[in-house]
Amino acid sequence: MVGPKRPQFVLFGSSIVQHSFYDQGWAAILSHLYARKADIVLRGYTGWNSRRALQVLQDIFPKDATEQPSLIIVYFGGNDSVLAHPSGLGQHVPLQEYIQNMTKIAIYLKSLSKKTRIIFLGSPPVNEPQLLGNSDLLGRPFRTNESCRIYSEACLSLCRDLNIKAIDIWSAIQRRKDWREVCFIDGIHLTAEGSKIVAKEILKVLKEAEWEPSLNWKSMPIEFAEDSTYDPIAPDGKTTINISGSPFHGDSEWD
Description:
Blueprint (H helix, E strand, L loop, with lengths): L7 E6 L1 H4 L7 H8 L5 E4 L7 H11 L10 E5 L19 H16 L6 E5 L23 H18 L2 E3 L1 H6 L4 H4 L9 H17 L47
Parallel strand pairs: 1-2, 1-3, 3-4, 4-5
Helix pairs in contact: 2-8, 3-4, 4-5
Keywords: Hydrolase, Lipid degradation, Lipid metabolism
Pfam families: Lipase_GDSL_2 (PF13472)
GO molecular function: hydrolase activity, acting on ester bonds
């Protein structure tokens, strides 16, 4: 562990989460904006579905932890929605079981701490023509945009019932007219342009939420923000300039 202690934002999900930490992904954007304000922690891995999430839930979020996360962003659904395999193996989770699993996850996370805030992300769309090998021997597609919509709406609905903030990524991405051309690397995972949409939706929720303390990146305290004689020297040559809150190029895009 390193100090001092500061808020922890945990991203819990599948490859949509893991891949978001590189190539201008939405987690990379959050890590940049919160660099001196919160730790952005990855706990989402390629291939995971809601069954796997339930299996590891208590290991990742133990109730007896000394400190609980300030924010948990949860994404599962895309892998759950894939075509079922006759063996019963694989990523597919039937819709009703998915709803039950996500409900259990939500209830457990809400129990961690009164100060732990939660955001669920609905499944993003997929660009079917861009997917490689997206069908079984009978020609049935493994992933469809329609199945993503169904699982996304189920996630959003259970969040309304549980009073949890949720983001409709499926609709947000498709509001861009050229989404099929610019938002996906491989039809599933997001490009920088697709990640910008997700990041803006998350930042909007964090800005508008009436949470105390606020988790809006513009409102949170800056770490080591005190004046220092080791800061850059001011033009008068006698004082220094505190640059702890100085913006980086492009920060205004996220205001």
